[in-house]
Design brief:
Layout lengths: L5 E4 L6 E8 L9 E7 L3 E7 L5 E7 L5 E3 L2 E4 L8 E7 L2 E6 L6 E3 L9 E5 L11
Antiparallel strand pairs: 1-2, 1-5, 2-3, 3-4, 5-6, 7-8, 7-11, 8-9, 9-10
Length: 132
Amino acid sequence: MRQIRFRAKALKGRRWVYGDLLHAGTDPADGEFEIMYWDDESGWMQERIDPATIGQLTCLRDINGKDIYEGDILDVSYADEDSYLEVRFVRGVFAFLWNGDLDDEFPCNAPTHEWAKVIDNIHDNPKLLKRH
């Protein structure tokens, strides 16, 4: 079974939290979310999160075995040219966007564990991408 997990920045402390995505408000349209996760010392925990930072696990890993999430920036540089891919959910599938260009995308169906390295994400370091 594939793992369905999310990450987002906690509103308190602005740290990344990983787990299950929950609606936190009384109305699903209000945009209030929490992530529920297991903490070995405290048991199940819930943290209110910034909805703009929500990213889903793609079930892919990079060359170092690191999980790849929606919103990650992957280094796929070769020779002397810096090349980065942004991971996005586009038209119903996870897709790679070449240097953040919405006109240059392709589905995430490649063996990323052989050639890609997670170097950051669009929330912590958006300047890495050369937006067109």
